[in-house]
Amino acid sequence: MVSLFRKRKVAQVPVRDERFQIQVRGLHKRFGDNEVLRGVDLDIERHQINIIIGGSGQGKSVLLKHLIGLIKPDQGQILVDGMDIVPLKDYQLNEVRRKFGMLFQYAALFDSLTVEENVAFPLVEHTKKSKAEVREIVRAKLDALGLHGTEKRFPSELSGGMRKRVGLARALVLEPDILMYDEPTTGLDPIATKNVDNMIAETAERLGVTSVVISHDMASTFRIGDRIAMLNEGTIVVVGTPAEIMHNDHPVLREFLTTSGVVGHR
Fold it and tell me: What is the pTM assigned to this prediction?
């Protein structure tokens, strides 16, 4: 008797490779009837800017939430520094999450808190540092990102680009190994976009962190990316350096790049 159900291929646990800080194999996730991730295989290169591109609704943000343990997959492995985080309990995941800093799409600052209070929030929540220590760390992060003098201002008083930098300062206060950016240039004008790109690149170079950027902005992608992966219909269809991506003939990728205006029609 022929089975009416297609069996999924069981993903093999990847052999640990020190080049990659995160290794994903066979990741599946379904929400009701919607299968968002359909067997994602992806390696995130250590100390590099790794960009995940793709159209709206292709599962980029869902994948990002898996990488930091906010969502459990239906199937597959996610290795962070060689440890599979999928079977971990909540208290174990909380320890792993200390490796990550997150800059959300619209910075996700608390409107009722000052810049200083926003940046201090992770330190107050997750450490036992004194108020003086917290203040010193916060001021150092703000100064490093060109935000000196903004400590007592509120998010509503800042430009979009400045809010992004405050969000990054908050993401950095716990000194993470990995920085995650969810559509960091959304809603910004070209000048502010370039400033955010420079911020991402300078942070990666200065601190040596591994960066993961979810983006549909192809100009930014080719400006700062070291490694680019395209997610389409729940799977990674192409991975490569910017030069390799630019010259790859995968039809979905070519249409995406052409429509975005970074390459011409062939």
Answer: 0.85
For residue 115, how far is the Cα from the chain centroid? 22
For residue 76, what are the contacts with CB-CB under 8 A and spacing of at least 6?
11, 24, 25, 26, 27, 28, 37, 39, 40, 86
* Residue pLDDT, tens place only, 122-140: 899 888 899 999 999 999 9
DSSP 107: T
- Residue ranges per structural domain of the chain: 109-175
d(CA 124, CA 147): 20
- Which long-range CB contacts under 8 A does 103-107 form with residues at least 24 apart? 103/164, 103/167, 103/168, 103/171, 103/179, 103/180, 103/181, 103/182, 103/184, 104/167, 104/182, 105/182, 105/183, 105/184, 105/186, 106/163, 106/186, 106/187, 107/155, 107/163, 107/164, 107/166, 107/167
CB 206 within 8 A of CB 47: no
* pLDDT tens string 37-79: 999 999 999 999 999 999 888 899 999 999 999 999 999 999 9
- State both tokens at 3: 């089975």
User: What's the mean per-residue pLDDT of the chain?
Assistant: 88
